[in-house]
From TrEMBL:
Pfam families from the UniProt entry: Aminotran_1_2
Record's protein name: Aminotransferase
Quaternary structure and interacting proteins, as annotated: Homodimer.
Species of the source: Paroceanicella profunda
This protein's UniProt keywords: Aminotransferase, Pyridoxal phosphate, Transferase
Length: 393
């Protein structure tokens, strides 16, 4: 049976990590993998999470199963974090295995109801979106999103493409901090997409993996909340990997906004069943930690402060690099780096330029020229700027 298997293409980002590790140069720069890094290049455990973990270790008396849907305090805490008090009684939430698990569960829910549904993705998007949609056997479409010239959202093109969507179409949007481009919708554009959803009847699906990494916890949620306050139904996938630093603990939440509380109860029951067949009970550890951080005022304040420090660090790296490039290039063509938000920016380098940056300067980024801003060395931004300009950017 297994001889029928075909070789899988290696994951490009994972291959890049191995190539970086094997590079002997002392001044190499890693802007590849999508994890937050501090000034020392470490991915720290958030202080409040560490404290919650210690308390949890002391208080936990059993490892027996909890609930199929997950930890209720965690789920309602995440709903509040994402949606505030918008439409609380119409939202069904379920704990998931990371943000990836939330996306998978929600698309499996769509498939259960509407196997013919088409899922529309931004061009470009996080590659796992297409992989999951394809794995589930759902049809996909893409909509134009990024203007390669200005490195901003090409909203005219996005709107023109989405004009072709209607009932039975799911429109996947990045809630903030678009991966891989760093270019984001304005609040007015969120309102316009919402108008289109209402007029055309498509189902918005917000992938919200970076809340707190862009303009702040509340500001980052403005688009998704504005939409949720007006549409009858939508899907939201959240992740605690980045903003709680819980990458390997695999914790996220899937949310379904329904027309009525009664429909939300049905959605909740179906997500319970989907959890059952995907993995039965979701892993508890990360959920318990997030639940206690969100419900303990002192821990929550400390988490918010630390997350804000991470966000501001990325923002100052953005402005620092844009300034260095303005000096080096003698014009403002790289200012988009300061305007982008989140952990990533798409630089707009060709594959050959990306390869030259790696080979000649030890600067590693993903082949589509996605840079992880948190990987920028704050004391060598001028060196980076010189390298970018030297390869013809
Ligand atoms: N969506 C996007 C756009 C992402 O970049 C990520 C993380 N790379 C995720 C979802 C999910 O991440 P995780 O499963 O690690 O929580």
């Amino acid at each position: 049976m297994f001889s029928k298997l075909t070789a899988q293409a290696p994951d490009k980002i994972i291959a890049l990590i191995a190539q970086y590790a094997a590079d002997p140069r002392g001044d190499k720069v890693d802007m590849g993998v999508g994890v937050y890094k501090d000034a020392q290049g470490r991915t720290p455990i958030i202080r409040a999470i560490k404290t919650a973990e210690q308390r949890h270790w002391e208080a936990e008396t059993t490892k027996t199963y909890k609930a199929l849907i997950g930890d209720g305090v965690f789920i309602s805490g995440m709903r509040g974090l994402v949606l505030g008090d918008v439409a609380a009684d119409r939202v069904a939430g379920a704990q998931s295995v990371g943000g990836t698990g939330a996306i998978y569960t929600l698309l499996d829910l769509v498939r259960t109801i509407e196997p013919q549904a088409r899922v529309w993705m931004s061009d470009p998007t996080w590659p796992n979106h297409a992989a999951i949609i394809g794995h589930l056997g759902l049809a996909s479409r893409s909509y134009r999103y990024f203007d390669a010239e200005t490195r901003e959202v090409d909203f005219e093109a996005m709107r023109a493409d989405l004009a072709g969507a209607g009932p039975g179409d799911v429109i996947l949007l990045h809630g903030c901090c678009h991966n891989p481009t760093g270019a984001n919708l304005t609040l007015a554009q969120w309102e316009e997409i919402t108008d289109m959803a209402l007029a055309q009847g498509f189902l918005p699906f917000v992938d919200f993996a970076y809340q707190g990494f862009g303009d702040g916890l509340e500001a980052d949620a403005a688009g998704v909340r504005a939409m949720a306050s007006r549409v009858p139904q939508m899907l939201i996938a959240t992740s605690c990997s980045k903003n709680f630093g819980l990458y390997r603990d695999r914790i996220g939440a899937a949310m379904v906004l329904c027309e009525t509380p009664a429909t939300a109860a049905l959605a909740r029951g179906t997500m319970e069943t989907l959890n059952r067949v995907h993995f039965s009970f979701p892993p508890d550890h990360g959920a318990a930690l997030v639940a206690s951080v969100l419900s303990d005022p002192a821990l929550r304040a400390d988490w918010v402060a630390e997350l804000e420090g991470m966000r501001l660090r990325m923002l100052s790296l953005r402005t620092g690099l844009a300034d260095a490039l303005r000096r080096e290039a003698n014009d403002d063509r790289f200012d988009f780096i300061a305007r982008h938000r989140g952990m990533f920016s798409r630089l707009g380098a060709s594959p050959a330029q990306v390869e030259r940056l790696r080979a000649e300067h030890g600067i590693y980024m993903v082949g589509d020229s996605r840079m992880n801003i948190a990987g920028l060395p704050e004391d060598r931004l001028d060196h980076l700027a010189r390298a970018f300009v030297s390869v013809g950017l």
